[in-house]
Amino acid sequence: QVQLQESGPGLVKPSQTLSLTCSVSGVSISSGDYYWAWIRQPPGKGLEWVGYIFYSGFNSFNPSLKGRASISMDTSKNQFSLNLRSVTAADTAIYYCARDLIPGTISDAFDIWGQGTLLTVSS
Amino acid sequence: QSVLTQPPSVSGAPGQRVTISCTGSDSNIGEGYDAHWYQQIPGKAPKLLMYGYKNRPSGVTDRFSNSRSGTSATLAITGLQAEDEADYYCQSYDSRLRGVVFGGGTKLTV
Questions:
Q1: CA B46, chain centre distance (Å)
Q2: pLDDT band at residue B87, thresholds of 50, 70 and 90?
Q3: pLDDT (tens digit, 9 = 90+) per residue, B34-67?
């Protein structure tokens, strides 16, 4: 059974870098089968796609983030991580990691999600 | 303002059928990109309900169905139950924005 679990600091100051980790169990992220994603949801609002990573190093990000985001993999720990630079209050959200549904391609349907972690940007 | 437009709320009585619309444009649903649907119970992560053309993940009841026409997609729920009360989101890909896009969400009240 595939499971995802997000972890992070909970609170980050404005202008700092946000770092979140998604720990994956039940499947190896280095197997090359799936695309992995970050999606966020500001409190009381809708969902927003942040970005994708594939084991090959392929990355794709929401253009609205204006180059502030990066996603990396640590295959030894079966984890992937999101870094978001120069955060503001607008980046306050529940951050979810998720798996793309179809192996080997981007279907943009996310079938397995973590429980989410709240990240608050405040001084 | 979301790229995909959903009604903020819909409601129905137990046993009834409701539909939730998702209106896009020629750069997403209208260009042929799949529309997917999620259910989100408050405080929980979204759950994939329908993907692509009439595809349902294992374990999702067949009371949920979807359709697409032109630049719009629709989620239908038959035999409404109290447990269906949740927020519903549509999602697609937008070629102009070059990324995954979501609708603003629809709150279903049973």
A1: 11
A2: very high
A3: 999 999 999 999 999 999 988 999 999 999 999 9
Given B36, B98, B99, which is nearest A109 (Cβ)?
B36
Under 8 Å between Cβ of A94 and B42? no
Q: Does B7 touch chain A (CB under 8 A)?
A: no
Q: CA A7, A12, A14, A18 torsion: positive or negative?
A: negative
Distance from C-alpha of B100 to C-alpha of A67, rounded to nearest angstrom: 16
Amino acid, res. B42 = P
For residue B59, give every residue at least 6 positions away whose Cβ sits within 8 Å of its Cβ, in sequence order, or none: none
Q: Are the C-beta atoms of residues B29 and B4 closer than 8 Å to each other?
A: yes
Neighbours of B79 (CB within 10 A): 12
